[in-house]
Specification:
With 296 residues, this protein is an all-alpha fold. The protein has 13 helices and no strands. The chain has 3 domains: 8-86, Human Immunodeficiency Virus Type 1 Capsid Protein; 92-173, Orthogonal Bundle (Non-ribosomal Peptide Synthetase Peptidyl Carrier Protein, Chain A); 215-280, no CATH class. The longest helix is centred in the middle third of the chain and has 32 residues, at 178-209. The protein is rod-shaped. Mean pLDDT is 76; it is low at 222-272 and 278-296.
Length: 296
């Protein structure tokens, strides 16, 4: 515009050719806000605004100095309006909404970030002074696995966008394929199910063995009926139990259970572990012993 020195008519033709009706209205509105007053600062006086930036074709004589000066002020004001419209308002929410897709490469994601900065902010994403903002957006809005890897880097605050791209590309290229992921999940599920089954078997085994005598003690006593013939009113003999139940081997004569009992009720040469007896001698609230234990 300064090179070709367009007239007022030329400026209108350029506006109609290069911009839509809405854009032209915005440009003219912003330009009228920048009409200089007598002190050189933008004025709000309507008469000065209409005089120095007319919306209708003015009767200026471009052959004299006054007409050329009026045209110079008009062109200068129009350029101010163009710059005001071209300066986009900052909308960082739009930039933060740019997230890396699941299968999007880091290079494509970074390019989308650059475009968002250009479109929604007045910042140049390639300028050195704006690199910190671009780096933070790249890290925080990257895919979860890439973001996690970037956060673990030592000296993260000193890394350039090029350094971050190398790490991101390495993570992206070593990702497992969908088939590999399905296979890994299937194996993990199988291992989990096997572990649960094993725990169930161990729990069931503990439940089944609860309240039973060790088979070695039962076989050593050799007298299932002897358990049933223990008299409930027999005095408590402490942890050792009755004389015939102890840690030492006793003969049939010293282990006669109840006078006149059948021979099968005699405990033939054998013994019972003291720890087994201590576990069995739990009594009910009425003082009687619990029923004889079953064969373990």
């Amino acid at each position: 515009m300064h090179t070709h020195s367009p007239t007022w008519d030329d400026c209108q033709q350029l506006l109609k050719t290069l911009f839509t009706t809405e854009e032209r209205e915005r440009i003219l509105t912003e330009a009228r806000k920048n009409v200089p007053g007598d002190n050189g600062r933008p004025t709000t006086l309507p008469n000065l605004i209409d005089e120095r930036f007319p919306l209708n074709r003015p009767d200026w004589d471009f052959g004299n100095a006054e007409g050329r000066e009026r045209l110079r002020v008009y062109r200068q004001t129009l350029m101010a309006g163009l710059r005001a419209v071209a300066r986009r308002p900052t909308n960082l929410a739009k930039v933060k909404a740019i997230m890396q897709g699941e299968n999007e490469s880091p290079a494509v994601f970074l390019e989308r970030l650059y475009d968002a900065y250009r479109q929604y902010t007045p910042l140049d994403p390639l300028a050195e002074e704006n690199q910190s903002a671009v780096i933070m957006s790249f890290i925080n809005q990257a895919a979860p696995d890439i973001r996690k890897k970037l956060y673990k880097q030592e000296g993260l605050g000193e890394m350039s966008i090029r350094d971050l791209m190398k790490v991101a590309e390495r993570v992206f290229n070593t990702r497992e394929t969908p088939e590999e992921r399905e296979d890994r999940i299937r194996k993990e599920n199988q291992e989990l199910q096997e572990r649960i089954r094993k725990e169930d078997r161990e729990h069931q085994s503990r439940e089944n063995s609860r309240g039973r005598w060790p088979r070695s003690c039962w076989q050593a006593c050799k007298a299932q009926s002897g358990w049933d013939r223990v008299r409930p009113d027999q005095p408590d003999r402490g942890d050792r139990g009755p004389d015939w139940i102890g840690d030492s081997v006793q003969t049939a004569k010293s282990m006669d259970i109840g006078r006149g009992s059948a021979p099968s009720a005699r405990v033939k040469q054998g013994k019972m572990h003291g720890s087994c007896w201590r576990g069995w001698r739990v009594t009910r609230g009425d003082g009687t012993r619990i029923p004889s234990p079953s064969l373990g």
